[in-house]
Amino acid sequence: MFVVFLIYLMFSKFGKIRLGRNDSKPEYSFFSWISMLFAAGMGIGLMYFGVAEPMQHYSSDVFASNDYINREKNAQLYTFFHWGIHAWAIYAIIGLSLSYFAYRYRLPLSLRSGFYPLLKEKIYGKWGDAIDVFALCSTFFGITTTLGFGVVQVNSGLEVLGIVPDTSFVYQVLIVGVLVSLSITSAVSGVDKGIRILSNINIVSVICLLLFVLFAGPTVYLIGSFTEGLGTYITNFFNLTFSTHVYEEETLPWFYDWTILYWAWWISWSPYVGLFIAKISKGRTIREFVGAVLIIPSVFNFFWMTIFGNSAVWFDRNVAMGKLSELASNPDALMFRFLEYLPLSSIVSFVVIAIIIIFFVTSADSGIFVMNNIATKNAKKSPKWQVVFWGISLAMLALLLLNAGGLDALQSMTLITALPFSIIMLLFIVSLMKAVIIDRDYYERSFSMSAMPWSGERWKERLKRIVSLRDRRSVDEFIETTVRNAFVELQKEFSDNGIEARINSSKNPMKVEIEIQYDIVNNFIYGVRSQSKSVSEYLVNEDNLPDVDENKRYIPMAYFGDSREGYDIQYFTKNELISDVLKHYERFLTIVSEERNEMFISSNSNKK
């Protein structure tokens, strides 16, 4: 359902809707945006399972009856399935809902806001508190599970390199203490500093490690297996999506231990990753958001799992003679044992540990940041001790669960919290669909049939304007005379009808607007501003347009208070401009009278 819904949104007319005002721009570059969402969403898991999962599938009894070629294909296929579009669809549902309601409706960046179309003002009461509390618990346990994976892998890597003598709990305590301290420091510095910088550093480091393994390993085999694996994944996409293995009793335990556990893991992480993705996604369109979040990280994950997993399988079959398969039950050390078959293994192992540490820090600091946002109801400022509190709490719970039952305890906690939240995610779909339908109808609402069209009077003057391209001075003069005179006349008429309207203006750029203020609903604004446009070179040299003597023209552009797309009004007479304002005012009154549009017309829409 998540995957189908997102693909529908991406290719539908709703895909053009922007996560913010219609004129809003993204806050981060595309590279920084992808780096941050990737590091927050999959980091430690890729390092832990990059070699371990393909090797475990390859050596599993479930696939033991197949020859080694089919076992390799199945290992790659199910790894792609677990780390591909289906996983990122879970994150995208939460991230898209939160960013849409936060930036489009100007609601708090909080899980409760995603239920506004269903609960309305109740999101600010006990219902909203309950949703946020549950999201906070789910996030807390989901992050703890992943950090536990990171701790045991760092510990195992240090043991392989001879830095620590064993993987006892004492060393795990020391590792957690150091890494969580770094995470708290990064979280206190904020998204724009610590998290963004570490994410950019990490993605570059990961790409360098990936290229090293690609060229130091069986390169031709890896490139070919990636291509074939991608084709196999696409071919089996729908079969994988709907398969529950209900008719294959021998594979059911494997299905529960892998696929079901993964979906639970992703769902438990979705409040955290979704909130973080929403925080950095303002200004993107729905189509851009869904396409990037579903496809780019998935393709990278496929390439990563192919390079590391298929390299390990190839080495196991051709060089190690089954020694790596024997270590499949010890995933903590499998990555480092695999690196021993590559050149510069010690140096590369240190690099891997450094990447895991940075992934740990970026995951933990992003998690601390998001949990603090949930707990403070997205307050703009919160005391730093609160950030420290969440960091220490993560560390304590991770150590408690590791000491109590290791990774099994962590995974059990993940499963417990995931099922109820999956129900909440289905309600997110209902709420988001209801909202985008209203959104699209709002911005596409046409005028009533009584709206006046252009008149045929003064057509000679209008033709002269059409074939001449105007300079800045003439447009400014048009705004100061025709537009202002129209607005002044309208203001007087509004006043005679008991409606208070005011005229606002500025010089650079030249603009004049008429505004009618309201306490409960959004203000009505109709304005005209001077806007420049480039003129093509061939048009400048066209003899039939003698007024064109430079590569820039200016036009008087209408704009509106709800950020709908404006249009050129340079051919309007004063009376036609008055008529156009009244058209929009009539449309405004019609829309504010409809209860379902309250999210767009509420006074919150006046807040910048």
From TrEMBL:
Record Pfam families: BCCT
InterPro entries: BCCT_CS, BCCT_transptr
Membrane topology: Multi-pass membrane protein
Main location group: membrane
Residue spans crossing the bilayer: 28-51, 80-103, 130-149, 169-191, 203-223, 260-278, 290-315, 347-375, 387-407, 413-437
Subcellular location: Cell membrane
Recorded coiled-coil stretches: none
UniProt keyword annotations, A-Z: Cell membrane, Membrane, Transmembrane, Transmembrane helix, Transport
Family as reported in the entry's similarity comment: Belongs to the BCCT transporter (TC 2.A.15) family.
Full protein name: BCCT family transporter
